[in-house]
Design a protein that fits this description.
It is built from no helices and 14 strands. The protein has about 140 residues and is mostly beta strands.
Amino acid sequence: MLEAFSTNQTIPQNGAIPLNSVALSECDGIKLNGVSSIQFYRCGVYAVSFDFEGTPSEGGALQIALKKDGVIQDQSTINLPLVATTVSASGSRKTYIQVPFNKSQCKCSVPTTISFENLGVGLANADFHVTIQRVN
């Protein structure tokens, strides 16, 4: 299992979400890569749970997206259509990521990389938490 989080961060509009603290940095073929992405080195299915809380920097839509190899995973986004700057916003999501086996090379198609991005209004005083566990 890997657990990573950020506390009291400013996350810009259309910006990557930093992961600046890690409880377990490498386990079951999962490794933090830099400050904003996670890599998978073993084939299988992984449960990914993530949540956030923060104060919007302006009113508008808020969307936190999980990207797999640079592509937004539509089933893995948190959408808040209208948020106000006077109220804290929060959301959570649980999804599954598959790291496929590459038959032509007789090995996993690795590394598979995921990252999280704020596609909506910016956030201040934001906390972000992600937990990943291999399930198969």
